[in-house]
Amino acid sequence: MEILLAILIGSLYTAGVYMLLRRSILKFIIGIIFISNATNLLVFMSSGLVKGNPPFTAPDGTPLEQTADPLNQALVLTAIVIGLGVVAYTLALKYKFFELTKTDDLDELKQTEEV
Amino acid sequence: MILTTLPILIPLVLIIVLMFSKSSIFSEVVTIIGTFTLLAVSLIATIYVNNNGLLVAYIGGWQAPYGITLVIDHFSSILLLTTSIILVSISIYALKYFPKTSQYKRFYIFFFTLTMGINGAFITGDIFNLYVWFEVMLLSSFVLITFGNQKQQLQGGIKYLAMNLVGSLFLLAGIGLIYGKTGTLNIAKLAEIIGNYEGEIFWLNTSGILIFIAFGIKAALFPLFYWLPASYHTPNITITSLFAGILTKVGVYALVRFFTLFLAIDQEFWQNLILTIAGLTMLSGGMAASTQYDNRKILSYHIISQIGYMIMGLGIFTTLSIAGAIFFIMHNMIAKTNVFLTAGMIDKIKGTYNLKNLGGLYKSNPLMAFLFIIPAFALAGIPQLSGFFAKFILIKAGFEDGHYITTSVALFTGLLTLYSMIKIWNEAFLKKAPEHVSDNKNIKLTFKDYLPSVILGSISILMGIFASEVFDFVHHAAESLMDNATYIKSVLK
Amino acid sequence: MNLNILQYAEKPIRWLLIIISIVALLRGHNYPGGGFIGGLLAGLAIVFQSLAYDVETVRKKMKLSPQSFIGIGLAIAAISLLPSIIGGAELMQAYWVKLQITESYVLKLGTPLIFDIGIFFSVIGIVLMFIFNLSK
């Protein structure tokens, strides 16, 4: 299972980098989403997968044997929330930019150099 | 202890107050009071740390390797203090230089979210928490850099955002891998584990490289710096000065914090890498700056070349060089903000940043010329100003440890800096004003316009005069970074 | 757009979502749920409303702006820090009050719940901000 997820992470990174290198801003944002999901999975995987033992203790407080690491799950949750905010901001920025320039082409971003 | 958490709590409270503020005058007053309070708090924290040792707070009462720890040690306290000095001057500067549009009140809200992120990054003792604070800082800076919503700002914003987002993801991946290998996120525990590490160092270096790239992007190191000159000149000058003074240095702070850990185990590899990159950063920044004619662009490229010096201090990796790097960060944050402030003043009078259209300012405004020359000379490293001692310590450390090439590059870059500063001086102040450009004669700068620059300039001078006291202070910080036994002991108890 | 069926269905579904969101908020801490998920669900209720009508009408109907939602949320979250500051404990240390409701059921209320309520409101504000800004 871990090897499968590792391949998935790799392909997500590949797809993300490919999208980042496109000229369209929208595709750039899709690339960011891919890479951020790949990274989240990577962080999640970094403590390994444990089957069928969620990170909870038994009702009387004794720790169960070989439970999943809860910290990674907390980290990923935080990272997902941050990713949500970032993507929303990027979309808003893209929208505003499109409204102003009517272009989605990254190669059009040259006016900053003509000051 | 509550003092440890105040640098985060004060901005939080101010954000809430500012969100409900109805008038812009109220916002201004709250901001000024807030930045002065932050200054007072960081001053108290610095004195406390110097006298009584580290300030540690365990968030939620969870003990050290498990919960989030906030730590103020010597290094963080120095940066907190320097940052709050800059925040005070920027908050005064914004009163006069930030356009009073509908966004004016919102600027102050994001000013403090940025502050919260920066202070959080300085005082956290947990690497994932560091990532979160970086994101807080980054998101607020995204908003700030696109303020104005003109084509230029949006374009600059997209460039800024693209690189920095990728950097954040690298950082997250690196942190995740470190956690997978060591099973901890606490910096003190991590230092302990890495200190006694007995495996293949190679495995830790993969996450080390990821983190190096991430902070390299944030700090604008050599192959990764091009987002900085592409975006820093687009927003309002108040925001540019704020970013120029602080943001990249948070990246440098994180690099120093992390790589005093990593360097300890695989010194040869990291030292070579960091020193090479430091040399290239200095050189490329300095050379690019000398080809530019826009005041803000020259200064933006200069940020990069100065980052090289700080990283060089880290790369040499002796107590003296780390002390030099910290001294340099302090000096550079203050002087750099100050030159940007003067660039804003020039723009207010002349209405342009282009050096070709400027001139004759020395005659018409000698006070401003004087205010420019202090940080400019400090940056170039003229004796008796702060920059001279900072560079002197670094170069002495470099020659002592036998890194002749990088140190020579540092000396040569000093000349390039001097050249650029003289260029601005000649073009903007000495040369006759070109005929076809008309002055905004009706704009007279008042005392309030000059005040922020006066504050920062006098600090640059004072740092030069009391250089030995400042040096003792930073040397102490460097010692505690190099030998992290006290840090580990006070955090892990 | 005038989608009659959706507009009829919208009101009960909206309230259902809000009730579910409050349940999710309250069962947080020890069970799946909490402020963030609750806030998203409550935000969804308003997204649903703006699907049935349109964004402008919903925006006019809302008595609070998204910004004030976020402000209120942050303020509540900040208030939840006060007990730990006044009590002299570490920041964000939890204080719990145990109420014996029936023989077997103990209701636990504490500062983490207040913090969660703060998050709940800020997340609603953020979701509103997304839809109002992105669906102009």
Describe the structure in your own words.
The complex is a heterotrimer of chains A (115), B (493) and C (136). The relative contact order of chain A is 0.14. Chain A has a single domain (2-49, 68-108), classed as Helix Hairpins (Orthogonal Bundle), CATH 1.10.287.3510. The mean pLDDT of chain A is 84. Chain A is 63% helix and 0% strand. Chain A has 115 residues and is mainly alpha-helical. In chain A, helix 1 (2-20) runs antiparallel to helix 2 (25-45) and helix 2 packs antiparallel against helix 3 (70-101). With 493 residues, chain B is mostly helical. Chain B has one domain. Helix content of chain B is 78%, strand content 2%. In chain B, helix 2 packs antiparallel against helix 3 (74-97), helix 2 runs parallel beside helix 4 and helix 10 (237-265) packs antiparallel against helix 11. Chain C is mainly alpha-helical. Chain C has one domain. Chain C has six helices and two strands, in the order αααααββα. In chain C, strands 1-2 form a two-stranded antiparallel ribbon. In chain C, a hairpin with a 5-residue loop joins strand 1 (96-100) and strand 2. In chain C, helix 1 (4-26) runs antiparallel to helix 2 (35-52) and helix 2 (35-52) crosses helix 3. Chain C is flat and about 55 Å long. Chain C starts with a helix and ends with a helix. At the A-B interface, helix 2 and helix 3 of A face helix 5 and helix 6 of B.
In short:
The complex is a heterotrimer of chains A (115), B (493) and C (136). With 115 residues, chain A is mostly helical.
Give descriptors for this structure.
heterotrimer, A: 115 residues, mainly alpha, Helix Hairpins, 3 helices, C: 136 residues, two-stranded antiparallel ribbon, 6 helices
Secondary structure elements and their pairing?
The complex is a heterotrimer of chains A (115), B (493) and C (136).
Chain A: H1 2-20, H2 25-45, H3 70-101
Chain B: H1 2-19, H2 24-52, E1 55-58, E2 69-72, H3 74-97, H4 104-123, H5 127-145, H6 151-182, H7 187-195, H8 201-219, H9 227-231, H10 237-265, H11 267-290, H12 295-316, H13 319-350, H14 361-364, H15 366-380, H16 386-400, H17 404-430, H18 447-465, H19 467-482, H20 485-492
Chain C: H1 4-26, H2 35-52, H3 55-61, H4 66-79, H5 82-86, E1 96-100, E2 106-110, H6 111-134
Antiparallel strand pairs in C: 1-2
Helix pairs in contact in C: 1-2, 2-3, 2-6, 4-6
